[in-house]
Design a protein that fits this description.
The protein has one domain. Helix content is about 25%, strand content about 40%. It has two helices and five strands; from the N terminus they run H-E-E-E-E-E-H. Strands 1-2-5-4-3 form a five-stranded antiparallel sheet. It is flat, with a radius of gyration of 14 Å. The protein starts with a helix and ends in a 5-residue tail after the last helix.
Length: about 80
């Protein structure tokens, strides 16, 4: 079982990795919002990720060979303070 310290160190390592990410081609940006599930998808092209890292509650970065290919934000309306009907 992981200790809180181990989880913290793992989180810090993932945050450091995301700080160094590179977006390959910003022209391929597309954004989609799933209202039913309250999820925002930000994609930088249509590549499938080979790694996903949760960088904070409800935020996942998707990587392909160390490059940022997408960001997924769950509970988006709550995170930004919107009342989505």
């Amino acid at each position: 079982m992981e200790s809180p310290r181990d989880r913290f160190e793992e989180f810090e390592a993932s945050m450091e990795k995301t700080r160094k990410l590179c977006i390959e081609d910003i022209d391929k940006l597309w954004i989609e919002y799933d209202r039913h599930n309250d999820i925002l998808y930000i994609n930088f092209g249509r590549e499938e990720a080979d790694e996903s890292i949760m960088v904070e509650d409800d935020v996942i970065v998707r990587l392909k060979e160390g490059k940022l290919v997408g960001i997924v934000v769950s509970n988006f309306s709550k995170k930004v303070g919107l009342d989505v009907v």
